[in-house]
Amino acid sequence: MADPILLVQPLISINSVDMVCYARSVKMTASDDMQDIATFCTPNATRPGSTTWDVEIEFAQSYDTAGTDVFNTLLAIAKTAVAVEIRPATGAVGVTNPQANFTAYIPTPTFLDGGVGESQTFTMTLRPNDDPVFTTA
Length: 137
What we know:
Blueprint: E1 11-14, E2 17-18, E3 23-36, E4 46-60, H1 70-76, E5 81-87, E6 99-105, E7 121-126, E8 133-135
Antiparallel strand pairs: 1-2, 1-5, 3-4, 4-7, 5-6, 6-8
C-alpha cells in the first residue's frame, strides 16, 4: 500500500499564474448524479450517471503591487473561461503526482472578509466546463 500524501506545496495554476503561495487549501471533488433504474425486482435500484466536479480553493487575501495580487489577479479574469492546472506537488507530472487540467469560468473574487485583527481569507469555487483531463506522464 502506498503512503498517503501530505500536501506541502501543490501546484495551483490559474490562467498560467502560479497561485500556490496565496492558497491555504485546495479540494477537488466529484459528485455523481444518481439515476433511477428501479424495476419490480429491484425497486430501489440506482446507478451513477453524469459526474460534476467542483474545485474549492481557499485563498489568503492580498492586494500587492509588487507581485501577484490575489484580488486583482482574479478580478482581471473574472467571468472568463481560463485554463486551470492542479496537482499534489510542484514536481514533475507522474504516477505519484497526477495532474488535473480543465477550463473553468472564474467567479468574481471576494473583496473583503474578516474581523478585527483577523487575516482575510476567501474560498473560490470553480466548476470545470467539461470533464477534467487527468495525466500521469
